[in-house]
Automatic annotation (TrEMBL):
The keyword GTP-binding applies. It comes from the Eukaryota. SUPFAM superfamilies: P-loop containing nucleoside triphosphate hydrolases. Keywords: GTP-binding, Hydrolase, Nucleotide-binding. Belongs to the small GTPase superfamily. Ras family. It comes from Cervus elaphus hippelaphus (European red deer). The keyword GTP-binding applies. One of its GO terms (molecular function) is G protein activity. It catalyses: GTP + H2O = GDP + phosphate + H(+). Signal peptide: none annotated. This is small monomeric GTPase. Its EC number is 3.6.5.2. InterPro entries: P-loop_NTPase, Ras-related_GTPase, Small_GTPase. It holds the Pfam family Ras.
Length: 109
């Protein structure tokens, strides 16, 4: 949630509940064209099970892991594998990005 809020509003929130899911909307300009952006910030899931509705809803995916948690990084591969399988099964192509977050916490790895 903090990353989504920072991206859409340019402000940082220090306290948030990672177990909450929410959808955010924003009007952005891309190549001088207005774009309506909707971002679903999913709950902090331990495993990628039961992600079907997310897979069918989205046109792009951002898989975020915490740079201070090896478990978080290793868990992100499960999501990337799920995305690859979904793309193959549905014959859809979509952008997917792996993002390391909390760079300021890197010294705690």
């Amino acid at each position: 949630m903090a990353l989504t809020v920072k991206f859409l509003t340019r402000r940082f929130i220090s306290e948030y509940d990672p177990n909450l899911e929410d959808t955010y909307s924003s009007e952005e300009t891309v190549d001088h064209q207005p774009v309506h952006l909707r971002v679903m910030d999913t709950a902090d899931l331990d495993t990628p099970r039961n992600c079907e509705r997310y897979l069918n809803w989205a046109h792009a995916f951002l898989v975020v892991y915490s740079v201070d948690s090896r478990q978080s990084f290793e868990g992100s591969s499960s999501y990337l594998e799920l995305l690859a399988l979904h793309a193959k099964e549905t014959q859809r192509s979509f952008p997917a990005l792996l993002l390391g977050n909390k760079l300021d916490m890197a010294q705690y790895r």
